[in-house]
Amino acid sequence: MNSKITTLTELQTDALIEIFNIGVGHAANSLSQIVGEGVSLSIPRLEILDSSQIDVLNSQINSKKICAVSQDFTGLIDTRTFLVFPEGKSMDVVRRMLGENIGLGDLGEMEQEALSEIGNIILNSCISAMSDSLQSSFQCSLPVFHRGSVDNVLDSENNVVLIMLHINFAIPSDHIDGNLVFLLSASSFNGLVEKIDHFIQAISSN
């Protein structure tokens, strides 16, 4: 096995997007129940990067500061996961989730807690979909809220693989973009690739 892989075949990419879309679909249902109206989430694009390419995320976010929620998941595959928004957009997400009548002063006090809960729902839903599809179990940490530059928040080490997913939030009368980022060691990424191949083989044999 190679010590580091930073590419996926088209079939592997499609399979991983399918798995993550199952996860965000479950998350959308949970968020819809919280806000009392339809919330739609989708993942149209996935990119595999290495730690030297973190500027790709910087250019896509186009904001000096981000707000993010992270969780660590450990098991056969270890990953640190992030739900990332440009700093201003995170406020938009929270306002829509809590209600338009929330004042800016109140929102500032509630933003960290609310965004952490949103991140917890989305990240856990994605990992649960991976667990079910790839037949791997995970233990998770509590969500942690971050605010700062992309470099400071992600603080990725060398030889880390980044799985970056663009995510669309479709909330009635509004549309907000964010990113899911998964940081994996080379060995964990290789383990993920093996699990994806088993998943594809299992589907093909049915």
Please characterize this protein's 3D structure.
By secondary structure, this protein is α+β, with helices and mostly antiparallel strands. It has a single domain, classed as 3-Layer(aba) Sandwich (Chemotaxis protein chec), CATH 3.40.1550. Strands 1, 2, 3, 4, 5, 6 and 7 form a seven-stranded antiparallel sheet that branches. The longest helix has 31 residues.
From the alpha carbons, calculate the radius of gyration and give it in angstroms.
Answer: 17 Å
Given the C-alpha coordinates, what overall shape results? globular
CATH superfamily: CheC-like
Question: Helicity level, as a percent range?
Answer: 40-55%
Low-confidence spans: none
- Structural class, by secondary structure, is alpha+beta
Number of helical regions? 6
Percent of residues in beta strands?
25-35%
Q: How do the SSEs run, as a string of H and E?
A: HEHEEHHEEHEEH
In the CATH hierarchy, the architecture is 3-Layer(aba) Sandwich
Indicate the mean pLDDT.
84
Structural domain tally: 1
Q: Would you tell me which CATH topology applies?
A: Chemotaxis protein chec
- Report the strand count: 7
End-to-end CA span: 28 Å
Report the CATH C-level class: Alpha Beta
Largest sheet: 7 strands, antiparallel
Structure summary:
The protein is of the alpha+beta class and 206 residues long.
